[in-house]
From TrEMBL:
Organism: Mytilus coruscus
Protein name per the record: G-protein coupled receptors family 1 profile domain-containing protein
Principal location: membrane
Phylogenetic lineage: Eukaryota, Metazoa, Spiralia, Lophotrochozoa, Mollusca
Subcellular localization: Cell membrane
Transmembrane helix found in the keyword field: yes
Cellular component GO terms, alphabetical: plasma membrane
Residue span, G-protein coupled receptors family 1 profile domain: 1-134
Keyword field: Cell membrane, G-protein coupled receptor, Membrane, Receptor, Transducer, Transmembrane, Transmembrane helix
Length: 184
């Protein structure tokens, strides 16, 4: 995007509607349309068709190996992976398509500030959702997440057991230890 700005195509400025420093979508409308088509729509269509082909490939292979004993387990893993990838793609598409449509639809810059801001924030939301997709579709990810959460919880609890007193730059930790009578 910025390379085209360097070639005097379009511009780069602060967009008062989406509240971000970005290419000037109103400087050259054709540039905005090309951006929307080349950097959003074409990749979404190509990736969508690729995932669809992958899904049909896995489904057909699954039908071919149903008679084998160990194959369905391996194939189920492939199907779950294809499902996870497709869900991530669907979330990405759902987040970015409104942004691409807004760029083209608001040719006269008449849409309200709130619409631009909401759709821009929504477009950038997809990375925040990815971990949830993996959590609910991948057992290994879920187990790893719980393991990390338990480790962090233990560390937090260990750090906050006992009393802590601070004086100046020195921190003193008082740990309450129960005395156990010795068997001597």
């Amino acid at each position: 995007m910025v390379l085209l700005n360097s070639a005097s195509i379009g511009g780069h400025s602060f967009d008062d509607k989406s509240l971000e420093c970005i290419w000037d979508r109103m400087a050259t409308y054709s540039y905005t349309v090309v951006f929307s088509v080349c950097l959003v729509w074409i990749p979404l269509i190509v990736v969508g068709m690729s995932y669809l082909r992958l899904f049909f490939y896995v489904r057909n292979k699954r039908k071919q190996v149903v008679s084998r004993e160990n194959a369905p387990n391996i194939d189920n893993k492939s199907l779950r992976l294809a499902k996870t990838i497709f869900i991530a793609y669907a979330i990405f598409s759902t987040c970015w398509m409104p942004f691409a449509m807004l760029l083209v639809a608001d040719a006269d810059d008449t849409f309200p500030h709130e619409v631009h801001l909401f759709i821009t924030v929504f477009a950038h939301l997809h990375p925040s959702i990815n971990w949830l997709i993996y959590y609910y579709t991948n057992g290994n990810f879920k187990a790893g997440f719980h393991k990390i959460f338990r480790i962090c919880s233990r560390r937090y609890k260990t750090q906050h057991d006992g009393q802590v007193s601070q004086s100046g730059t020195t921190t003193t930790r008082v740990i309450n230890i129960k005395s156990v009578p010795s068997e001597d």
